[in-house]
Amino acid sequence: MPLLAARYAHTNLIAENWQELAAFYETVFGCQPVPPVRDFRGPQLEAGTGVPGAALRGAHLRLPGHGEQGPTLEIFEYNPLENRARTAPNRPGFGHIAFEVPDVEAARAVVLAEGGHALGEVVTLQTATGARVTWAYVTDPECNIIELQQWS
């Protein structure tokens, strides 16, 4: 039994341009905006984040495949914004977000056409149970890692 009664709510991405990044996830993956646009600043935000002078603006996007009450991707733009470390799939911390797609090669081509970047090749692995997964790592236009996967 878990120590806390918990339910998954959202994953947050900090963007250089929240509107452009949100548009990418809406266009490519069919994520749906969940109004209102968030716009926070002031002493409570500073206290909660530990960032002096913090201000943030952004939105939640409903992730596809889980209905109207499904989890969201929260995309915020901070002011001030720290410099980004180089993207790497083996960096500790948040690794990637994964989307199951019907055709990994085709999905990869769409991501690249919409401003994303390739990190590796499309590969197929067989699990210990005999299932096969075809997958590839790509990034969104701001270099956040996305896994595209297809199970068979």
TrEMBL record:
Coiled-coil residue spans: none
GO molecular function, a single term: metal ion binding
GO biological process: L-methylmalonyl-CoA metabolic process
PROSITE patterns, alphabetized: VOC
Keywords: Metal-binding
Entry's transmembrane regions: none
Database matches in PANTHER family: METHYLMALONYL-COA EPIMERASE, METHYLMALONYL-COA EPIMERASE, MITOCHONDRIAL
Protein name: VOC family protein
Organism the protein comes from: Hymenobacter busanensis
